[in-house]
Amino acid sequence: MRNFLKIIILIFCVSFELQASASRVISSINESWHFLCGDSPGAINNESVDSSWDMVNIPHTWNASDATDEIPGYYRGVGWYKRTVFIPEDKKGNEVTIYFEGANQEVELFINGKSAGKHAGGYTRFSFNITELLNFGEKNVFAIRVSNEYNENIPPLSADFTFFGGIYRDIYLIYTNKLHISTTHYASSGVYISIPEVNDKTAKVHIRTLLTNADKSFQSVLVQHTIVSPEGKTVSVISKQVKLPGLSDQYADNQEIVIKNPILWSTDSPELYTVFTQVYDSKNKILLDEVTEPLGLRWFEFSAEKGFVLNGKPIKLIGTSRHQCYEKMGNALPDEMHVRDVLLLKSMGGNFLRVAHYPQDPVVMEMCDKLGIITSVEIPIVNAITENEDFTQNSLEMAKEMVYQDFNRPSVVIWAYMNEVLLRIPAPYKEDLEKKKNYFSSVNELASKIEAQIRKDDSGRYTMIPCHGNFNDYNNAGLTNIPMIVGWNLYQGWYGDSFNKFDTFLDTAHEKLPNVPFIITEYGADVDPRLHSFDPVRFDYTAEYANQYHEHYIKAIKERTFVAGANIWNLNDFHSEERGNAVPHINNKGITTTTRELKDTYLQYRAMCLSQPVVLIGGSNWKIRGGIADTDYTCKQPVKIYSNLEKVELFLNSQSLGYQNVKDNIALFEVPFVNGENTLEAVGFNGNKKVNDMLKIDFRMISYNLKDMALPFREINVMLGSKRYFEDKQASIVWLPEKKYTEGSWGYVGGKNYVKLTRHGSQPASDSEISGTDNDPVFQTMRTGIEAFRLDVPKGQYTISFHWAELQGDTSGKSLVYNLGDDALKEEFSGRVFDVLVNGEKVIPGLDIASEYGVQRAVVKKTIVDVFDDRGITISFNAIKGEPMLNAIRIYRNY
Fold first, then answer.
1. 579 half-sphere exposure, CB direction, 13 A CA radius
2. Residue 206's closest CA among 189, 193, 223, 197?
């Protein structure tokens, strides 16, 4: 009896061990990698590393710092990652797959000195079966060579974003039974769910499962699918016996399920079913493998007549595009920060995300499924193509990876490719019409191949090519006739022309393509949230100009049915190393900053898109303001309230400023700010329910009469040649726009605003990076030919800080294709030398900024002056060569 019990116990233990080992195990190996920035071919041979290697965790990029420093360019080369990984003895007999969520852009993995696989492309996932290279029960040396070097055969060739290098997403090991659901079919789940038929009454669900049998012998298995409803109830179970040949890979099993009275997935109610796919040993009924996938039951269509229709209901798609980077982190973000971004879009009321210009972290798509956000995903062919077979094959491979990796996402309705692919026509083709025609033909041929492949791999979704605003080129190249949707990246009123030209473009394009639905895949204006103006102009980077831009665009978009949807460019400011602008190395078109601080445009869309009552005070991140006092010691400045209610009331320090009706989600108030703390409260009512928002503002008032003791003079900060306000948040000061001198007050005497001419007009401020400062806008404007700057201050001691940066001369800058021809034109400049005098005393003789400090470099010089009489301060500029100039000035009263 005792022996019999031992046998029973042994059988039970063996059975338990079989079932335990049969379960799929997924475990990250992100921690404690040794990293070397540079090539080291010998790194594959042993496990040791020297002191030149750093210790890092994945996600990681080697460009988190150099992509934003003042040295042009950033490291594009090779990096090595290396560590040992212990593989337990009890995993012997398992198949082991390594799974990369993303590494930029060429990867080769070595295990114990042998190559385990290569991958080209920086934004799609990939996996390798590494079983045969492992030593079980021992430490194994993993060495990974990664390169983000330029490669003409791998898209993207160029783009308006930084190509961060490194392993910037998670790495996992996947342990499976020898017989399992495929782990290497384009790094997908191996289970593909499609919905050939769906309506309010019934849904037909087709499930294709790819099976792998790594055993030499023939195997019989049971493939079972269990569908669980959003409420957690099992609604259907189907199964099928499948006979697998030995050493077979990606053997396809197809099954179909019908669901009665389906609960539909929509943007308002993103109800998700769950599909559990299980593989059992037919003989012993042991669970061999299991995969879980989401299922959203919905149908949709795009048309020029109706726009976008989901489950029979027309919906205007309004949302953003998104880049995957963050301040001081590059693109190496943890999952939680990706999740935060999608939640920001949902909180704004957005129902549409263009995952641009490349597939992103899988958690992004997961959140779109859960939150009900319609998505478009695209491969990173940007600006141009290379006309060879390697580029073609890499593009097609990326397209397959994109489609299969997100095949089961109910949120995904569009596969896109070739963003602005005619923006950078190779130089030899631009002037040669025959060569240009041949290049267009090559682009058309590649587009046709990608289109055909995507439609073959997934016939249930739409395709799209996002084009820049050169309609004739795309139409002549035949690209407007290949995809099912044409996307337009349009910036009229920013890079050139006027806002109205946006409307004209849309209507003209629709006339020529009357049956093609459009999506505005990009539109936006750059905003540095530190900059403001009550007289905004194009390219001034102020919040107020961007507000006007978006107010016009969104109205035009909503009015046109053939415009199915629109993506603001962009959800967040993002890294673009080549740019100067107000914030160097950053594209500032986001409706949030690189740290996700909300801009006014975010508030505007929130009021427009959300169904729940909204009252939001505009300029919420402009907390330190300033201005000149009126006779009643107030300073009136406009404040916008964003709301979806009929009217709102605004209070200043508990005193009502009255009601204003809301039009196009905006109510405008003139607010009489007082010196010091100002508390604003905006109030609206939804029935009897109060909806409000509050904002505290520190207002730095300057008396018009600087000797007025009722409002004593303390300091003033003025940007010359500028109509902008600049909030220096770190120093807690506000810079004011210039004004002409008037008696008793302050201001400049003589000279003119310096502007740079462009093909589309002029730039009100330089868009070049100013080295030596983080406050570039303070130095990016200037008044040339200035004669004096006067302040009629009372007696006392004052510190004067002169701010200079030479904006003319040889800047050695290059034109940016993304400016669409609006780069500054070349100008003649022979230099300048001048003296600076304060109250007649020469304090800076013979100043030659360019020779002494170089161009586009911040220079701050201070002087202290005592005012003993009523003459105040007069700063004079004496020309020796060329015209004197001044960028900005700060005057602070010491005593």
1. 21
2. 193
The Cα 329–Cα 325 span in angstroms is 7
Residue 365 phi, psi (nearest 5): -70, -40
- Residue 117: per-residue pLDDT: 97
Interstrand relation of 676-686 and 462-468 (parallel, antiparallel or unpaired): unpaired
Q: Cα dist. 167→122, 403, 405, 865 in Å?
A: 9, 22, 19, 56
Q: How far apart are CA 166 and CA 164, in angstroms?
A: 7
125 pLDDT band, cuts 50/70/90, is very high
Residue pLDDT, tens place only, 261-296: 999 999 999 999 999 999 999 988 899 999 999 999
Using H for helix, E for strand and C for coil, what is the string for 491-534?
CECCCECCCHHHHHHHHHHHHHCCCCCEEEEECCCCCCCCEECC
Cβ count within 10 A of residue 664? 13
Helix/strand/coil for 610: coil
Residues 6+ apart with CB under 8 A from 792: 705, 706, 707, 743, 744, 745, 746, 872
Considering only CA atoms, give the Rg of the chain.
32
pLDDT digits (tens, 9 = 90+) for 233-243: 999 999 999 99
Contact yes or no for 588/580 (Cβ under 8 A): no
**Residue 638 scores a pLDDT above 90:** yes
Q: How many CB atoms lie within 10 A of CB 774?
A: 11
Instruction: Report the run of H or E that residue 420 belongs to, with start and end.
Output: none
Which of 843, 810, 806, 850 has its CA nearest to residue 826?
Answer: 810
pLDDT average, residue stretch 750-770: 86
